[in-house]
Design a protein that fits this description.
Distance between the termini: 63 Å
Shape: elongated
Order of helices and strands: HHHHHHHHHHHH
Largest sheet: none
Oligomer: single chain
Radius of gyration: 20 Å
Strand content: under 5%
Number of helices: 12
Helix content: over 70%
Length: about 210
Amino acid sequence: TSRIEFACLGFETGDREQALREMRDARQTLLAEPGRDREIDLEKPTTLEGYFLLRMERHAELEELIAEYHDRFPAVANTMFLAGMAARQRGDADRAIACLEQALELAATASHASRLPEVQGAALPNLIGALRMERGQQEAAEAAFRLALTREEANLEARLGLVALHFSKGELKQVLEELDELVESHGDDVKTWLTGDIVLSQMPEFAQ
């Protein structure tokens, strides 16, 4: 554990390549040791090594790592999130959405302490909503943003997503309702006012 923690500290404050090597060595050492519960032992270093690779934009290596883990053990929320992010960077939106939605399902039964920050709270459903919007899947996008709001009632990104969604559908009444919610919950955030200015300037009754 101290080796893993040392690698995490090094990644944030020092040489990222060295930290990645340390994490990889820690994972491979655990894999080689007999008599261990490898599924439990390997989830953490695999997740963290994958997270390092994601942040270093080394997506091919990330996909190889996650595929190797999934060949041995069942998927968990963190590994499916990482698989989804790798697919997204590769431009495979359908695969990304499928992986991220599986991560969302798995996260419901995972320990809060073991999940990556991006798998907690509103972050994951917001990401799914944004990807669904990019694919023109408006109902599924709205469902994802609404789910984000059930997790964080005043979540800014979910509200912004709903404004953009309703605007794209020409639902002006709903746009104004969501803008009101934004002003009430995030009236001091510049994103609220920039969004309001952009949207209202493109609505005929306000653009004149």
